[in-house]
Specification:
423 residues; alpha/beta; two-stranded antiparallel ribbon; 14 helices; 15 strands
């Protein structure tokens, strides 16, 4: 097909997160302001400086058939569960081709992970050392591949237009969704299953993040550990799960009578070129991504009423993000209700952009911004910049045509900004 510039819409959502085993229960938890952070049980976590995390509320082994689950890394298990929910939510019944509403060659998947099958890699290395070569699973390589989740989702739905896995650390899930938008806009696909997944709650990643001074060590009060924008924040809390959306050309969605959640306006991209792990302190790179979004789409700052912020609860990152937003949006930031949902879910790394896109889509759909919990005393810089952090309880969003932004940033200086509009 020749290049086009088609309107892209969201027609299905799916999630499995620390707050619930599907999108509905996750949304309910977000609106209620419930934390999914818990103490880590077990001897292998006992000596770690960080002994808290946000595990999935529903173990994937309880959902998937055992023969299938044992061939998938936990990250792929989450992705498959979320994708199947989103696929059904969009009204599809069976694989592409079997369901005549979509042809296999017009369907793609883009599911990202920041780390991939890290638990498979580490666990199978333990098997090798303790039990010998012959006990290593023959499924190890397909399980540990970062493209495993996207490939398995592609097999599930019969995608032939392309199966992709962008990797950009904690921006991976958002970049996947942005890539999917371009697949549809350029005419390569009519429908794309897109999102992010992560499953890295293991002693090694936790020890490594802790030694970088990136994680909260508030082991005594797990539910209060993730506190974006709060004066006493001391790092992020690791979470796990997946968030997936079904993206579709508006023409294709309307032709089959699909329910449309919202329009995907587009994406903004940039790189900090500052440090492999530290955010650029002035927010220069983040500002460039937001400006790129405005320059490459018809979005006007006056339309934006809600922002699902990256807001990991790290001292530098939270402030750089607010500075960047004020720089680009100016006075229009005053009417943006900012939610930091990682305060409840923890940080899902490459899965963050997926579940936070689901949250942003539902915020527009229900016209309700989730709260940011654990903000007892706002950081002075946030107060000075006048950012409107939604605290305490969920807040109603305005009527009429409104827009929302979802920010995702990753180690390496990756910045991805996605924008959505109500329908």
């Amino acid at each position: 097909m020749s290049s086009t510039n088609r309107t892209v819409v969201v027609t299905g959502i799916g999630a499995t997160t620390p707050l619930g085993g599907d999108a509905a229960s996750t949304w309910e938890g977000l609106i209620a302001g419930r934390s999914g952070v818990k103490p880590l049980e077990g001897e292998r976590f006992a000596e770690l400086p960080v002994r808290i995390a946000a595990p999935a509320a529903v173990d994937p082994g309880e959902v998937l058939p055992r023969p299938l689950a044992r061939k998938l890394d936990r990250s792929a298990q989450f992705a498959l569960i979320a994708a199947k929910e989103a696929w059904a939510d969009a009204g599809y019944e069976g694989k592409a081709g079997e369901d005549d509403k979509i042809a296999p060659e017009r369907l793609g998947t883009v599911i990202a992970s920041g780390i991939g099958g890290v638990t498979t890699l580490l666990d199978q290395y333990d098997v090798l050392k303790e039990k010998g070569v012959r006990r290593v699973s023959p499924h190890t390589v397909p399980m540990l591949m970062p493209n495993g989740p996207s490939a398995n989702v592609g097999l599930e739905v019969g995608a032939q237009a392309g199966v992709h896995t962008p990797v950009s650390a904690c921006a991976s899930g958002a970049e996947a969704i942005g890539y999917a938008v371009e697949m549809i806009r350029t005419g390569r696909a009519d429908v794309v299953v897109a999102g992010g997944t992560e499953a890295a709650i293991h002693p090694l990643p936790i020890a490594a993040f802790a030694n970088m001074m990136a994680m909260s060590k508030n082991n005594d009060e797990p539910t209060k550990a993730s506190r974006p924008y709060d004066k006493g924040r001391d790092g992020f809390v690791l979470g796990e799960g997946a968030g997936v959306v079904i993206l579709e050309s508006e023409e294709h969605a309307k032709a089959r009578g699909a329910r449309i959640y919202c329009e995907v306006i587009g994406q903004g991209l940039s790189a900090d070129s500052h440090h492999i792990a530290q955010p650029e302190p002035t927010g220069r790179g983040v500002a460039a991504a937001v400006q790129n979004l405005l320059d490459s789409t018809d979005l006007k700052p006056s339309e934006v009423v809600h922002l699902n912020a990256h807001a990991t609860s790290t001292p530098q990152g939270d402030i750089a993000e607010i500075k960047a937003l004020r720089k680009v949006l100016g006075a229009d930031l005053d009417h943006v209700a900012i939610s930091g949902t990682k305060s409840m879910t923890g940080h899902l790394l490459g899965g963050a952009g997926g579940i936070e896109t689901v949250a942003t889509v539902l915020a527009l759909h229900h016209r309700l911004a989730p709260p940011t919990i654990n903000v007892d005393e706002l950081d002075e810089t946030v107060v000075e910049d006048g950012a409107d952090i939604v605290r305490g309880q969920a807040r109603a969003l305005p009527e009429g045509t409104i827009a929302a932004i979802n920010n995702s940033f990753g180690f390496g200086g990756h910045n991805v900004v996605l924008a959505f509009r109500s329908v």
